[in-house]
Amino acid sequence: MNHHLKGRARGFSRKTLPLSSEIYEILRSFHKRQKTFLRENGEGNKNDYILLNLRDGRLTSLGVPIGQAAMNLIIKRVSKEVKVNFDSEKISCYNCRHTVASKWANTPGIALFF
């Protein structure tokens, strides 16, 4: 989508981690609010992305998803708001992704090789 995803060798596929129903509902609600915001501002969402870039009108009109740098800023802001007790300057999508992967890999009974 934004050219940050690497291709997989033949025979390999991406695994998608399941979302809890609570997270799914939060994303669904956000997506609904985003659609309303776009409609009210005369914009579209041709790809129907959930995390659409709204900071740059040109990118919004092109249907470009939010970038990693902007997502890192959001994560830092939310971390401070919920008073996460750590150096919030070091948190990023990368850290979150690897934390989830580590927790998943440490789950009893999980198959690590597909």
The amount of helix comes to 40-55%
Mass-distribution shape: globular
Low-confidence stretches: 1-5
Residues in β-strands, percent: under 5%
Mean pLDDT, all residues:
76
Number of strands: 0
In N-to-C order, the SSE pattern is HHHH
Which sheet architecture does the biggest sheet show? none
Radius of gyration: 17 Å
Query: What structural category do the secondary elements indicate?
Result: mainly alpha
What does it look like?
The chain is mainly alpha-helical. The chain is 46% helix and 0% strand. The chain has helices at 21-40, 57-62, 68-81, 93-105. It starts with 20 loop residues before the first helix and ends in a 9-residue tail after the last helix.
Detail the topology: elements first, then pairings.
Blueprint: H1 21-40, H2 57-62, H3 68-81, H4 93-105
Condensed summary:
With 114 residues, this protein is mainly alpha-helical. Helix content is 46%, strand content 0%.
Q: What key phrases describe this protein's structure?
A:
single chain, 114 residues, mainly alpha, 4 helices
